[in-house]
Amino acid sequence: MSARTAVVMLAVVFVACVWLAPAWAQEAGGGPAAGAQTNAPREISILKLIQYSGPIGWLIIVISFVAVALVVEDVRVIRRDRLMPPQTVTALKHFIARGQYREALVRCEQEEGFITSVVGAGLSAVGSGAADGGEVQTAMVEAGEEQASRLYRKIEYLSLIGNVAPMMGLLGTVTGMILAFNKIAFKEELVRPSDLAHGISQALVTTCMGLIVAIPTMFFVSFFRNRIDSTVAEAEAIVEKLMGQFRKTGAE
Fold first, then answer.
1. Please, are residues 22 and 51 in contact by the beta-carbon 8 Å criterion?
2. Number of other CB atoms surrounding residue 61 within 10 Å
3. Distance CA 142, CA 170 (A)
4. Helix (H, G, I), strand (E, B), or coil: what is residue 33?
5. Core-most of 92, 159, 222, 233, by most CB within 10 Å?
6. What's the pLDDT tens digit per position in 145-171?
């Protein structure tokens, strides 16, 4: 089971528990005793506010768990030690310096990563009898662009959640205000503040929830984008040191 699937399943369980918690509490406690009067101030709990948010609020909660799963996976994948493992770089440097290009190509094929994909593409061009260094360079540039595009595509889903979450909060705001105005429009007697509480609560809570999801999500999008930029730049410098001789002299 992948990290994304596990977190989404936890989100569904969490939503179900939050939805059923008030009913369980009322059944277990039996409610207040008949005739009992309390002067304790009435406050709305966090769970009650979440319930007021309606279906849109539940959707925001679900996508927040998906965002957490994406962040965890991107932290695991988009890191220097995974994209260009030091031991792999050392091994490739050893093979290429000794002219053991076949062994270096086999090592690249055995390990998946940014460095191995780019260097492997260059070595494949050399092994296929590239006439000059331009063909080797073209192969490595294409491989590097493909690997960088894959990394950027991984954070596109996170960026989508960061953009959609506040829009969903705004949708909840609009629907909540519609509910509040409907109470005013269709109630013949005097409208009390409590009659408008549900609609206004949905309007405010969904806006808050959307922003709570969007702000850290966009932070991580920027963080991962900067990490990809710096990692790709460092990887290109390493590739230049490993394969510079082929770029200049071709397959000599």
1. yes
2. 18
3. 42
4. coil
5. 92
6. 898 999 999 899 999 999 999 999 999
Distance CA 141, CA 18 (A): 51
pLDDT digits (tens, 9 = 90+) for 200-248: 777 888 888 999 999 999 999 999 999 999 988 988 888 888 877 765 5
Do 202 and 49 touch, CB atoms closer than 8 A? no
Closest to 129 in 3D by CA, of 241, 1, 250, 26: 250
Residue 137 forms part of a structural domain? yes
Question: How far apart, in whole angstroms, are the C-alpha atoms of residue 183 and residue 185?
Answer: 6
Q: Is 63 a domain residue?
A: no
Taking the C-alpha atoms of residue 167 and residue 160, their distance in angstroms, rounded to an integer, is: 11
What would you measure as the largest C-alpha separation in the chain, in angstroms?
97
Number of domains in the chain: 1
> How long a stretch of residues is the chain?
252
Q: Which domain holds residue 142?
A: 81-152+234-247
- Answer yes or no: is 103 within a domain: yes
Alpha-carbon span 167 to 192, nearest angstrom: 30
Angle at 217 between CA 211 and CA 220, to 5 degrees: 145
Q: Are 210 and 234 in contact (CB under 8 A)?
A: no
Assigned token pair, 145: 């662009």
Beta carbons of 196 and 176 less than 8 angstroms apart = no
